[in-house]
Amino acid sequence: MCTPKPQPPCNSKVLIFGSGNFGSCLASHLGDVQHKVYLWCREERIVKHFNTHHRNPVYLPNHEFPETITAIGPEYPTQEVLNDMDVILFAIPTQFLRENLKRVNAQLDHDNLPLLIFVNKGIEVGTHALTLEIIADTCGADVARVATFISGPSFAKEIVERQPTSVSVASLTETEAQKASDLFHQPHFRCYIGGDPIGLELSGALKNVYAIAAGMADGLGFENNTRAMIITRGLAEMTCIGTAYGASPLTFLGLAGVGDLFLTCSSRNSRNYTVGHRLGKGESLETIISTLGSVAEGVSTAKGLKKIIDDLGVNAPIANSIYEVLYEGKDTQTAVRDLMALPPSRELELPPTTGAPAYKLLEKLGLNADSPRQNLAEWTRQR
């Protein structure tokens, strides 16, 4: 049984794993409000440049970061450093999360656990696991139950410019979600808490696949009608998949769902949109990935999502088409033609059977009928 440490009313010590776009912008946001932030980087040159010039030479290079942020690395943080933190935030790609969590967990004091926040969006290749399950596998069920997740329409460039932004914060433990919300909430960065981390995770992962579809359509020369169709039908597919998995359908109507989907499908600042746009223009996936300069989570997520769709037996033609383009060599024009040639169907329909994967995950976390979270488990079982 782990015991989360109390959250300081101000000036928290925050360690952020990952100095990419989003990790850097969150560091800037927290540093601006006088939290003491340590930004872990894998490259020594970035650490030295950051600490000398208060700039990240790779991500957000034109932004001057507050002096409350210190870059550390490439050496891994010591046990003393990890356990001195009030907050540890993971902003590293999902595919590298498991190995990092194993290293961190081996040194964490579970009797005085920092607030753990996860902002990655994706499904692990091979295991098809959500981050919540990866945490349970590497750190134990007690840690997974208090883990907190943040997701929503939030481009890094706009956050550091203090443009109005809102996100969803979710955890199976409401007090931890509230602590994360209190840490981040500002007049220009509003936080809304919820208790469905499974739905929040699925929303954040799946929207990247549909952003590839939206970019691909734009690359092929289609315009507003087509983009609106992809966003709307993409939301319907996401809701159907998520409900079959065991998430609340309402989660997909929130910031982490339709909010992030709309943003990611509508902007050339989205890496996943960019992948799709270049595919629509005729470039190969290999060329795109080798020259993109950063990770597009939707490419790997499409593979894990395909397995989930097949296992759940849900109808998700757009997601299946993106998988065929990415991994089976299907031509983008053919993919569009085949989608548009499908017979008419009901517009809105939830799956007849729901909840099995989420219920299994909740059982893995020890959230059974004898648990304080009985209502969540019962809700999942009955759906």
Task: Give an overview in words.
This is Glycerol-3-phosphate dehydrogenase. With 383 residues, the protein is α/β, with parallel strands linked by helices. 51% of the residues lie in helices and 10% in strands. The chain has 18 helices and eight strands. Strands 3-2-1-4-5-6-7-8 form an eight-stranded mixed beta sheet, with helices on both faces. Helix 4 runs parallel beside helix 5 and helix 14 packs across helix 15. The two termini are 30 Å apart.
Key features of this structure:
single chain, 383 residues, 18 helices
| Radius of gyration over all CA atoms, rounded | 20 Å
User: Based on DSSP secondary structure assignment, what is the total number of beta strands?
Assistant: 8
Q: Which word captures the global form?
A: globular
Note the run of SSEs as H and E: EHEHEHEHEHHEHEHEHHHHHHHHHH
N- and C-termini, Cα separation? 30 Å
Name the structural class: alpha/beta
Instruction: Please give the count of helices.
Output: 18
- Largest beta sheet, briefly? 8 strands, mixed
What fraction strand?
5-15%
Low-confidence stretches: 369-383
Helix fraction, binned, reads: 40-55%
Q: State the strand order across the main sheet.
A: 3-2-1-4-5-6-7-8
What is the average of the pLDDT values? 92
Protein name: Glycerol-3-phosphate dehydrogenase
Organism: Pluteus cervinus
